[in-house]
Amino acid sequence: DTEVTQTPKHLVMGMTNKKSLKCEQHMGHRAMYWYKQKAKKPPELMFVYSYEKLSINESVPSRFSPECPNSSLLNLHLHALQPEDSALYLCASSQGPNIQYFGAGTRLSVL
Amino acid sequence: GQNIDQPTEMTATEGAIVQINCTYQTSGFNGLFWYQQHAGEAPTFLSYNVLDGLEEKGRFSSFLSRSKGYSYLLLKELQMKDSASYLCAVRGRDDKIIFGKGTRLHILP
């Protein structure tokens, strides 16, 4: 099983809303990642969790708040987003310095 | 600085062979990945190189030269479904993977 599951698949939210993106993997991977991808651009790293601890924050605005409740779950809490935050948000996981497996992503639209 | 370069677009014919090049300059090197991404979908893993040389997997092969900071992805017997973006990505330090801008490959019948 090489599956990373992301929910929801699509999300539309207003600039005053609070919402959360969820990511789950059951491969026993120690590292989990959040990426943001705009149309026709490569994925941009946002956060990395290693052994449930935040190890990398790529200077992401505080309106994005990651959380890793356990080794299988990764959340991204969203609050007071801007229209330019509309993008595909990808979660990935890996076991060590090796292949990252990506989820199908959540397509977010901020109105 | 960190930089990964690959051509923006390429066009090839069904049944042919195409080579997509990638050059990189990164802080540290812990492996190079190639991913395929169809429009609106997540990237899917194609290959991983950490040592110099050629890795072959079916119709897809990937080559790495660490001394030259260079890799290529070779696609043989092209099929229409191979029309996609191909992302070169390098793992530097601290679990960070940096993606190139991707090469959009168009396959003509």
Q: What can you tell me about this protein's structure?
A:
The complex is a heterodimer of chains A (111) and B (109). Chain A has 111 residues and is mainly beta. Helix content of chain A is 0%, strand content 58%. In chain A, the strands form 2 sheets. In chain A, strands 2, 4, 5, 6, 9, 10 and 11 form a 7-stranded mixed sheet that branches. In chain A, a hairpin with a 2-residue loop joins strand 5 and strand 6. Chain A is globular and about 35 Å long. Chain A starts with a strand and ends with a strand. The model of chain A has no long low-confidence stretch (mean pLDDT 93). In chain B, strand 4 and strand 5 form a beta hairpin. Helix content of chain B is 0%, strand content 57%. The termini of chain B are far apart. The mean pLDDT of chain B is 93. Chain B has no helices and 11 strands. Chain B has 109 residues and is an all-beta fold. In chain B, the strands form 2 sheets. In chain B, strands 2, 4, 5, 9, 10 and 11 form a 6-stranded mixed sheet that branches. A 5-stranded antiparallel sheet of chain B has the order 1-3-8-7-6, with no helix packed on it. The chains are: A mainly beta (111), B mainly beta (109).
